[in-house]
Amino acid sequence: MSDSKFLTAEEVSERYRGEVTVGTLRNWRAMRVGPAFVKIGKAVLYPVDQLDAWDEKNLVPCRPSRRLSDNP
After folding, report:
1. Order of strands, sheet of 43-47, starting from the edge strand that comes earlier in the sequence
2. d(CA 46, CA 37)
3. pLDDT tens digits for 18-64?
4. Contact 37, 45 (CB under 8 A)
5. CA 43 → CA 6, 20, 37, 46, 53, distances in Å?
6. Where are the alpha helices (DSSP H) in the chain?
7. Half-sphere exposure of 20 (CA within 13 A, CB side)
8. Are 58 and 47 in contact (CB under 8 A)?
9. How many Å separate Cα 1 from the centre of its chain?
10. What pLDDT does residue 1 have?
């Protein structure tokens, strides 16, 4: 993890276009849900590779509709 880039809670919120607020991240940390984080002293940092893995875990796959697949 030494080569990983880390984001602050504010930067994570920006990554998700403000849809995940700093307060939400704080609540998730307290409940131990959400993306993995590292805490060093008072600093809370989110490894980018862990955020990417969390994104992948929360990916909602879609399938083509029947109408599209029925067309010749």
Report:
1. 6-7, 43-47, 38-40
2. 5
3. 999 999 999 999 999 999 999 999 999 999 999 999 999 999 999 88
4. yes
5. 11, 19, 10, 10, 22
6. 9-15, 22-31, 48-57, 66-70
7. 18
8. no
9. 17
10. 47
- Residue 47 corresponds to which amino acid? P
Phi/psi of residue 65, nearest 5 degrees: -70, 160
| Distance separating alpha carbons of residues 14 and 55, to the nearest angstrom | 15
- For residue 60, the one-letter residue type is V
10 Å CB burial of residue 57 (0-12, 13-18, 19+) is exposed
Write down the pTM of the prediction.
Answer: 0.80
d(CA 10, CA 44): 10
How far the first Cα of the chain sits from its last, in Å, is 50
Provide the CA 68 distance to its chain's centre, in angstroms.
32
Residue 20: how many other CB atoms lie within 10 Å = 17
